[in-house]
Each structure stands twice: as C-alpha cells, then as structure tokens.
Specification:
It is built from one helix and ten strands; from the N terminus they run E-E-E-H-E-E-E-E-E-E-E. The chain is mostly beta strands. The protein has one domain: Beta Complex (Metal Binding Protein, Guanine Nucleotide Exchange Factor, Chain A), CATH 2.170.150. It has a five-stranded antiparallel beta sheet with strand order 4-9-8-7-6, with no helix packed on it. It has a three-stranded antiparallel beta sheet with strand order 1-2-5, with no helix packed on it. A hairpin with an 8-residue loop joins strand 7 and strand 8. The mean pLDDT is 95.
Length: 115
C-alpha cells in the first residue's frame, strides 16, 4: 500500500510504499524525546515529494543515523541509515502518515538506551 505523510507545516512531504504491519518505539536519548513510532523500510520505498534541501539533519553519537526534521515546524518525519546487511533504510515516523489508525498498529518496544 502507498501512504502519504508530512511534517506539521507541510514543508517536508513524502510517500512510502509497503505493508505497515508494525512499528517500533525506541527509548534511546533522542527517540524518547521525539516520541516517534518508527516503521523501517528500504530507502527506495520512501520518496520525498519536496526537495531534500527543505529538511534539516541531525547526527549524534556514532553518526550512523541521519535524523531528518523540518526546520520550520520541528517535526521529525523520518531518518536514514544502513541496515546490518548494508541496505539503505528509512525509519518513517508513522505519526506523520495521513489517515492511519495508530491504535491498530502493533508497537514493539526497543531498548536503544542500553546499546
């Protein structure tokens, strides 16, 4: 299925295709503060509908994940990184996807704080 999403102000818009069957909640220092629910997809399954220059990026710790956010409204719609297999991945914040029932998505809790 194809989904549309954006930040709050609409400056950063995207679409993502796949089966949204679950999400992950991480308790690492940044995810806990953001409150995002992440859906991991191959990077090719997510397409920006606005220029990448309209996003800002934040890197911390080992600089393995590029946390993308809107410089206007501050919402974090997605992040980018590499899976252990070497595949480029996107971590889509499903709270930014339009028209889904968040209560119907099973959430797995990940202990990123201990890593």
């Amino acid at each position: 299925m194809k989904y549309q999403g954006s930040c709050h102000c609409g400056r950063v818009k995207f679409e993502v295709e796949g089966d949204l069957t679950s999400a992950m909640s991480c308790n690492c220092s940044i995810c806990q503060r953001k409150g995002s629910l992440l859906w991991f997809v191959p990077r090719g399954a997510m397409r920006l509908l606005t220029p990448e220059e309209d996003t800002s990026a934040y890197l911390f710790n080992k600089h393995q994940i590029t946390h993308r956010f809107c410089p206007v409204c501050g919402i974090h719609p997605y992040g980018e990184g590499t899976a252990p297999s070497g595949e480029a991945m996107a971590a889509v914040n499903i709270r930014c996807i339009e028209g889904i029932d968040l209560q119907g998505i099973p959430v797995t809790h990940y202990d990123g704080r201990s890593i």
